């Protein structure tokens, strides 16, 4: 029982958190390859590869893969973001070896069949079109594009229709061979398997995984794209949408050295979210939904506020949000109120640890991109955050003059 971390002889990082009393096991394979590592003319290739790994290997056809997934998994999926791609399976503990063999075949032996590339291109373009038909998604993409100005993270993770159409088998294989290597990957296991048994099984199927560490340096985000206000119009829109973004400190430490300075933004975000709901929704009745959230990566960190309201109320919503942010600088909460927020966050984190698949995915992200809210040491770091830490953070980063806003309204 407990966490065991080892590296195979080929450099693959393996992390097993054994929970013998679990009947399920979460398994995640993550690779440090997301949209920020793509060439501009190949935007969307990381996401395209994610799809293609389910479309045939040297040993299995796409229909064999589908049938086996239904047979051995409770749930399965994959996700591509800015810095990583993660494939994950939730299984009954009795299917562990079958799942490891299956996953090893997917990531080691993709065939990239030409006919499947063309067949999958349509659904990927359709996925892209769905996001274009979703106003919140369009507004979010616009906010990232403006705030991350000329940085790869400002591009849609899925790519653009013209780049998706341009991606061919040669481009897919070149990127797969470059990034899908053991030294650039992690395999995480969480749940009902003994660490020794898990490691033995993983060695059996992953020892022959080959490849070298690619260059995964990321250029820093330009911090000058602040203080912008943009309005967008959609004829079919019924509600008004307001989004606001603020730059906060990016992740700079490994999760082993996590400290209070790196979780203070999370506490501030949760506190802001609570206050906005109480004021904008509860007191003023201006919005059905209003909240704050945060993205933390190695290359950038952004805090967002989003609200949906009647179109003729958006100006009032914006003014109310700005007013509450200014009021928050006074930090009228008692120390006990801040402790309550921290305890709520700790409780959420503990509940997440009872889910094998969420925990396996979390462990993969920790290793690949070191997202603070996924890190070990989180609870102790949260407990160390004090009133004055919040005040310093708010003074430096939570300034409406530094924010970028998007308003989307009916035309």
Describe the structure concisely for a colleague.
Helix 1 crosses helix 7 and helix 9 crosses helix 13 (378-384).
Task: List its traits.
single chain, 411 residues, alpha+beta, Cytochrome Bc1 Complex, Chain A, domain 1, 2 domains, five-stranded mixed sheet, 14 helices, 11 strands, globular
Report the span from N to C terminus: 59 Å
CATH architecture of the largest domain: 2-Layer Sandwich
**Unreliable spans:** none
Average pLDDT, rounded to a whole number, is 91
Shape: globular
Order of helices and strands: EEEHHEEHHHHHEHEEHEEHHHHHE
Beta strand % = 15-25%
Spatial order of strands in the largest sheet = 1-2-6-3-5-4
Q: So what's the CATH class of the largest domain? A: Alpha Beta
Radius of gyration: 22 Å
- Give the structural class: alpha+beta
Work out the count of structural domains.
2
Fourth-level CATH superfamily of the largest domain: Metalloenzyme, LuxS/M16 peptidase-like
- Oligomer classification: single chain
Give a written overview of the molecule.
The protein has 411 residues and is α+β, with helices and mostly antiparallel strands. The chain has two domains: 2-206, Cytochrome Bc1 Complex, Chain A, domain 1; 229-409, Metalloenzyme, LuxS/M16 peptidase-like (Cytochrome Bc1 Complex, Chain A, domain 1, 2-Layer Sandwich). It has 14 helices and eleven strands. The strands form two sheets. A six-stranded mixed sheet has the order 1-2-6-3-5-4, with helices on both faces. The chain has a five-stranded mixed sheet with strand order 7-11-8-10-9, sandwiched between helices. Helix 9 packs across helix 14. The mean pLDDT is 91.
């Amino acid at each position: 029982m407990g966490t065991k971390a080892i590296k195979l002889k080929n450099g693959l990082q393996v992390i097993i958190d054994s929970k013998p009393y679990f009947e399920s096991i979460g398994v995640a394979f993550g690779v440090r390859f997301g949209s920020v590592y793509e060439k501009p003319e190949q935007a969307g290739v990381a996401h395209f590869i994610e799809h293609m790994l389910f479309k045939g290997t040297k040993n299995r056809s796409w229909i064999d893969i589908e049938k086996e997934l239904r047979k051995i998994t409770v749930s399965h999926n994959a996700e591509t973001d800015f810095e990583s791609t993660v494939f994950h399976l939730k299984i009954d503990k009795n299917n562990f070896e079958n799942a490891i063999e299956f996953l090893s075949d997917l990531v080691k032996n993709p065939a990239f069949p030409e006919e499947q590339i063309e067949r999958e291109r349509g659904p990927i373009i359709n996925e892209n079109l769905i996001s274009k038909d979703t106003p919140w998604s369009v507004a979010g993409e616009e906010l990232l594009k403006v705030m991350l100005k000329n940085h790869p993270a400002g591009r849609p993770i899925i790519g653009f229709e013209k780049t998706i159409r341009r991606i061919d088998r040669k481009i897919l294989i070149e990127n797969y061979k470059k990034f899908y290597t053991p030294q650039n990957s992690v395999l995480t296991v969480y749940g009902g398997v003994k660490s020794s048994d898990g490691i033995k099984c993983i060695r059996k199927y992953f020892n022959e995984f080959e490849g070298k560490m690619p260059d995964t340096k990321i250029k820093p985000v330009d911090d000058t794209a602040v203080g912008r206000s943009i309005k967008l119009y959609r004829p079919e829109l019924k509600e008004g949408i307001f989004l606001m973004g603020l730059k906060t400190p990016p992740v700079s430490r490994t999760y082993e050295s996590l400290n209070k300075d790196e979780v203070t933004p999370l506490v501030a975000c949760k506190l802001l979210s609570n206050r906005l709901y109480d004021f904008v929704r509860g007191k003023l009745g201006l919005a059905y939904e209003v909240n704050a959230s945060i993205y933390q990566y190695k290359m950038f960190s952004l805090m967002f506020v989003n609200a949906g309201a009647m179109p003729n109320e958006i100006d009032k919503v914006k003014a109310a949000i700005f007013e509450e942010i200014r009021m928050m600088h006074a930090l009228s909460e008692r120390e006990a109120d801040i402790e309550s927020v921290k305890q709520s966050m700790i409780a959420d984190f503990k509940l997440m640890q009872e889910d094998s698949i969420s925990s396996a995915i979390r462990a993969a992200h920790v290793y690949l991109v070191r997202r603070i809210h996924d890190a070990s040491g989180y609870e102790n770091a949260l407990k160390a955050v004090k009133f004055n830490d919040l005040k310093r953070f708010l003074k430096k980063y939570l300034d409406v003059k530094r924010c970028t806003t998007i308003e989307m309204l009916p035309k």
